[in-house]
Amino acid sequence: MSSATTSASGGRPVLAPPPDATEPVRHPDAPAPGTPLGPHYDQCFGCGDDQPYGLHLAVRAGEGVGVTAEFTVRPAHQGAPGLAHGGVLASALDETLGSLNWLRRVIAVTGRLESDFLRPVPVGATLHLSARCTAVAGRKMYASAEGRIGGPQGPVAVRAQALFVEVGVSHFTSNGRPEEIRAAMSDPDQVKVVRAFEVGP
Ligand SMILES: CCCCCCCC/C=C\CCCCCCCC(=O)SCCNC(=O)CCNC(=O)[C@H](O)C(C)(C)COP(=O)(O)OP(=O)(O)OC[C@H]1O[C@@H](n2cnc3c(N)ncnc32)[C@H](O)[C@@H]1OP(=O)(O)O
Fold first, then answer.
1. Pocket of ligand 1, candidates 9, 43, 102, 109: which has the most ligand atoms within 8 Å of its Cβ, to mutate?
2. CA dist., res. 132 & res. 7, Å (int)
3. Domain Thioesterase: where (predicted)?
């Protein structure tokens, strides 16, 4: 019987890139460091402007295949009184990590996300996030992220390692609820986002 940490990788620790992994490549048209990436979908819980209880994460391109982001914890994000819910913090890490794929112009979804919660994060605190892609192997993208509180140089409160898997647009059109897919396809801004991915490197 395979262990929980090796089951999806044929015996290899799942978040360690395989020997044939390569360095991530930043797409030539990736936005300059410091540029806001903007939401990939206005209803996204992580980055969407139209999600009232969402994280409204503001992600910016960094150097190489790296990003930074800020997320301010609101009362809707509590787990214990006055403290952020761990699942919400994991969502902030997931969204930040997911946005790395925009710099590669690859559509990818989270396959595995491992999170460490090192310090409690109070309501009102801003989590200063940074993420970078560490390796690519075929459709798999390996990445890590951390979130600091009290300022960009403050102590690390959360961190994560993740594996994203490249997918086509059909991942969404075949699996998403038809009414949201129809609405997204009739939104010219959303179609622009999809086209940008489809041009590819
Ligand atoms: C107009 C309408 C369209 C709109 C489009 C808008 C564009 C928007 C742009 C961007 C959106 C991005 C959204 C970001 C949001 C933040 C990120 C999220 O939260 S995403 C949601 C959570 N994640 C999922 O829901 C995935 C659910 N899982 C799956 O769908 C599949 O399991 C999937 C795609 C991950 C893999 O399935 P397979 O059948 O394609 O491929 P297999 O062969 O199973 O895996 C490929 C390789 O990956 C490894 N792998 C897969 N899962 C693994 C795991 N959990 N752990 C370790 N390795 C894993 C496998 O071992 C395999 O490796 P080997 O090639 O054999 O070496």
1. 109
2. 25
3. 82-151
